[in-house]
Amino acid sequence: MGSTSAHSNEGGLGRRDLIKRSAALGLVSVPAMGFLSACASGGGKTNDKVEKGVKSDKNPLGVNETAELDFVLFDGGFGQQYAKDAIKLYEQAHPQAKVKFTPTQKITTELQPRFNGGTPPDLIDNSGAEQMDMGVLVGQKQLTDLTPLLDAPSVDDPSKKVRDTLRPGIIEMGQFDGEPCWMLNYAYTVYGVWYSQKALDSLDAKYPETWDEMLALCEKAKKKGIAPWTYAGKHPYYIPFSLYPMIGKVGGREVLDAIDNLEPKAWEHPAVKACFEAYYELYKKGYILQGTPGLDHIQSQTAWTEGKALFIPNGSWVENEAAKTMPADFGLAVSAPTGLDSSDKMPFGTLWAAGGEPFIVPAKAKNPEGAMEQLRIMLSEASSKNFTQSVKSLSALNGGTDGIELSPGLKSGVAALEKAGANVVNPRLQDWYVALQKEKIGVAGIGEMMAGRATPAETIKKIQKFADDAAKDPNIKHYKHQ
Amino acid sequence: MQHGKYRFIVGFLAVPLALYALFVIWPFIQSIYYSLTDWTGLSPEFGFVGLDNYTRLFQDEIFWKSLQHSLTFAVVLPLVTVGFALFLAFMLNVGGRRRKGAAVTGVRGSSFYKIVYFFPQVLSIVIVALLFQFAYNPNSGAINSFLKAVGLGAIQPDWLGDPDLALICVMVVLVWSTVGFFVVLFSAGMASIPRDFYEAALLDGASRFTTFFRITLPLLWDTVQSGWIYMGILALGAESFAVVQIMTVGPNGGGPDYSTIVMPLYVYQKAFRDGQAAYATTIGVALLLVTLAFAAVVMKLGRRERLEF
Q1: Nearest CA to B190 among B96, B300, B91?
Q2: What percent of the residues of chain A are helix, what percent strand, and what percent coil, each to the nearest 5?
Q3: Which of B26, B139, B246, B283 should one mutate to test binding to chain A, selecting the residue with the greatest count of A CBs within 10 A?
Q4: In chain A, whose CA is at the least distance from the CA of B249?
Q5: What is chain B's mean pLDDT, rounded?
Q6: ipTM, 2 decimals?
């Protein structure tokens, strides 16, 4: 740990100093210290890993055929069936190996004590509202490098490595600083502006490509009694799903990279200002569903599926999440965000698409080979198709959608990806700096602006300060685009 | 009969004292120790950083906001809840008069009201918070629908989405859910006040107002004081955490622009979201100091002569 070693370099601080100062405080006596630290750390002793198995063509990672695999899955929007199906395949391939499977929604509550005690599970789907901060886990060296998995042959074609079968951006997202790959996102999410094709048809319109067209369409919708926009008002960090790619489209990738890198004045770029003003205009002209700032994500999605609003910034999980309230003839569709005009740096179709549902193998996992083997099986075409079909989301495996019938939203997502081609942007704030992105920029910044309580200029100033503070904060591990 | 008395007392007290030390005092000492480290909560290794976390605490704007909100909770909530509960309990027990038979009695139907007021108490605070979250929904919630129904459709506040209203909205829910408990508590206290006092006051022609301030309140003072501290601790601790976390901005809480962040919630965020467990314990230590200060102030202010009856 950085600070500890830094202290001891400065001459005798560290543990001895710790005891001295504590004693001086008169709070804790010396013999208590050992007990105390043992208590917090749960020992922190070296972990006994299971013995490696013999590598073979059938077992390229060298899985121990008799070892147990401890698998914890986030039981959220995608459910748990897809993982259960993949576990069956693992147990078929390694009949003597047992998989202990624990689906949960309380990732942090259940796993933080296990990390802290040095006995984490072997494979974790670290996702959901209680996701453990990936930046912290990497910074604390708590994860296993997944490079062996990436270099292993793929299940379907042994002449190909797993790394060559993944969608663009998946490996890059797992890399936080240099080469090692710390996580593998299993789902592939398309972010953007979601709408009902049926509602758009009823307005006799097609999706607008420039902001003037957007405003004209909004006016038309408003006259018909449909609010043009809504968003998850209590979670305004959903707005960036369409706002960030718009910034990228208007100002180019470098603007988004500068923002991710927490560069000074990154937010003062004219493209950011133009896009903020465009969105603020939606508020000023009354194009946002009344009461939106008080709605949460489910409430806003419901208002939208009920036809009260036309557009909503969201991710491709919305198809599964809003399925209950979505009418059968809704015609769910997604579009890349509308840009400003023809002077934008990137073409219409510039899209935010990125991995989601990050799987990790803790550094202290007992059976890391088993965990990687399980992931390798999940990345086979059969498992991937099963995933796409049952939860209406793309997986990290490139392709794998042939021959299965896609749901409307998924079809539209695939089309948007095809249209985007190489123009896929991938802002990293939300996995590098969770608190900054969600709470500061999202809620305190953009949320306040869209509720009409701050102007774009004030908001930019506020957000720039948040970013500067985060850049200076020694308690946050910092990352940069390579 | 005196010898062996101390041995007897010590014998009785040793086990509870040991348990108290182990499960109450010891965790406090541990927290103070952890607040001097850079422990993340995600790995068993950590180092000692001295008072760094405290320096950081003093410069942390959000901490000051959470402190301010927690103090508001600690001052306003007991005042409103205890005051309101006293009023209700008085009406239920002493308020009614023009009835045959007993000289001192509650308003008509008081035994029914007593049960009704207690209802929210049997609901889990989580359920209460969720229900109110729906009621506050600005788009289709009960409150705004009611406003529309009575012709006030022009007034459609965002409630929890508005930084000026969110904190008040949360406090109202806490009052609603706890007032019943205090009504029952104070009713029990009032039942132990001798009837003759009230009858005497009645004969002297005292109004309800005078009766309350001259007889009920002074004789109930000890109960009120305990209730006051209890409510303050609820407002500083678990209950405020639960309602704020559930009602405002989903899983991470805190309201629009930090308008409802309270200290226990900030502890939770730092420990379980940001992986800064040591800093979280530092905020926890600050919360401990605030709670102790609150109890001390109330005890000091509330000290008065004991009335015997």
Answers
A1: B91
A2: 45, 15, 40
A3: B139
A4: A234
A5: 85
A6: 0.70
